[in-house]
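Lab notebook, bench 4. Still working through the backlog of constructs that have no structural model yet. Next entry is a single chain of 221 residues. Request: give me the structure tokens for it.
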Amino acid sequence: MTGHTRYDRPEGRQAEMNDMDMAEAERSDLAAFLAGLTPQQWQMPTLCERWQVKDVVAHMISYDDLSTAGLIRRFLKGRLLWANQAGVDEFTSHTPDQLLELFTTHLRPRGLAAGFGGMIGLVDGTIHHQDIRRGLGIPRQIPPQRLHRVLTAIRTNPRLGVPWRTRGLRLEATDLEWSTGKGVLVSGPGEVLLMAMTGRRGITDELAGPGLARLAGRIGD
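Model written out:
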């Protein structure tokens, strides 16, 4: 998964939808998008290093039906750091149609993806949806409530490396009311900040501010 340690709640407002509902809505949006892709597009690279579209989809459903024992076996097989790849490998023989059919039965997260009331599924789904769309060059606007929720959730997540990348920086979204951190300013659209915070390369030229060079260097751009 993209991460499963600790998630913060958005401050100062009551969410109109709960986390599980937003996670299901995000997966539903992605499923509708995937249904329109060609077989060639399913083989295209994404922002996830070494993963094609089909691999990202397999990853997103690979944790949903795991028992605790299965999760332990997955991590042992994957030697911890490669557990995500071990999950993807289990779906290697699946065609895009088969993966899409499975994905549509997993719209409401369960298992590990249902953790923290669905927040893990929401974070994982939103980020990977963008990984796929950016890899294909087909942008979208993330619904603002979901985007704010995910931005707030990941800002202290060490598994994603966010605290290290953003240390000494203040990040400010230019398209919604959201900011985090103290230090040198980096600003830009919330979606771009989200992807930069999670270490996606090749997007920092969409941001601005005196702290940009520091953030780009930590990402490897």
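Notes after review: The first strand starts at residue 169 and ends at 173. Residues 119-136 form the longest helix (18 residues). Flag for follow-up if needed.
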